[in-house]
Amino acid sequence: MELEKTQTLETGFNNKKGFTLIELLITLVIIGIMSSMVFINFSTLNSVEARGKSFQRTFDFLAEESITTGNIIGWYANNDSESAYFISIDGLKMIDSLIEMPPSGFQDLLNYEKIFKSFDGNIYEIDDESNKQSPLIVFYPSGENSGGSLKIKRQDFVQIIHIGKNGVIEIEKAEY
User: Fold this and answer.
1) How far is 33 from 39, CA to CA, in rounded Å?
2) Which residues lie below 8 Å from residue 51, measured CB to CB, with a gap of 6+?
């Protein structure tokens, strides 16, 4: 009887129930990798939403400014900057010299390709030379605007900001 007990122990048979240290470490590494992937996706979603809110704040401001002054305002953008001007029959007057426009985060988009599509179907690629003559969005004293979509091509996804004629902004994130 003594002989059988010794042979069983030499084969490595173990009656204990539980996990080895290696099994526990592998499980912890897998959980760590999965949680970091969730965190990265969540922070990307937050930045997309934050960008939409900052554009919402800027466009709400321009709409309110147009309503209170009774003037038509145009929003212009090129790759370097954005600006807003009063549009009048006898020329353009810059709104920036009168009041400061709230930041929309447009400066953070310098390295990305940006395409604006107006609701009348015109497509403008926003680069260094673009949009010096015509505004991308026009704000009317009635509270409406001309609307459009701003498509921002990032490294791993495309962000589309839809600006409704009533001033409502919707954000869409699309994969390539």
Assistant:
1) 10
2) 105, 108, 159, 161, 171
Tell me which residue of 175, 176, 121 sits closest to 149, measured CA to CA.
Answer: 121
**Tokens coding 130:** 């673009």
The CATH number of whichever domain residue 110 belongs to comes to 3.55.40.10
**pLDDT tens profile 60-82:** 888 898 899 888 888 888 777 78
Residue 78 placed within a domain: yes
Minimal CA–CA distance to 117: which of 126, 109, 106?
126
Question: What is the total count of domains within the chain?
Answer: 1
Between CA 54 and CA 32 the distance in angstroms is 33
Alpha helices in the chain (DSSP H): 2-10, 21-69
- Per-residue pLDDT of 119-167, as tens digits, reads 888 888 887 665 566 788 888 999 899 999 988 887 778 888 888 888 7
